[in-house]
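It is worth pausing here to work through a concrete case rather than discussing structure prediction in the abstract. The textbook approach is simple: state the sequence, then state the predicted structure, then interpret. We follow exactly that order.
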Amino acid sequence: MAIRDDVLFPGYDVVAKTDQVTVSFFDYGNSKDDAIQVQLNEEIIVSFLDIASGTKSVDLDINAGENRLRIVGAADRDFPVTVGMTFDSADVYSEYNDAPRTFNILLEEGITFTLGLPVIRVDGDLYPQSAQHIIDTLGEPTVTKVKRADNNSRRRTVTDRWRNINGNVPLGYQVDESLPVSTHRQ
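Step two, the predicted structure:
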């Protein structure tokens, strides 16, 4: 795993910025009948995608943790399907948004890529109080999404609720945000 900006990026082939990722496929050869099947986590997302007629985009909803994107040749023939693939640059950190990747796929063989979201971990040995507080709040390790829009409104709701129950916040203290107002559970 590589560490970048206090976020752990697991060794996925493609690291996503969001749980909704758009991938585009195209035929980089000259065949008139190139087609593929797109699978995500062993579920068929598109059973027959005709890429010979132009670039086709597929939206993927990825889960927390590792996801497996599998591309399988769907054209019934003895020579490979020539496939190019790119990701929307707004969706991924990976080099796959810089230049298309191309590969050849035989019928029913396929190629698999791993993709997932960054993982933020709080080290319980280095930050025992923070880690324990997170466990106390969430009950167990969980996945949350950062949602920065409307932070101030959510923060006001949390602090107003605390003040209604406990009175004013003592000088030098602040109200605990549990979960932080910039996140929400998936």
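Step three, interpretation. The radius of gyration is 22 Å. Confidence is low (pLDDT under 50) at residues 1-6.
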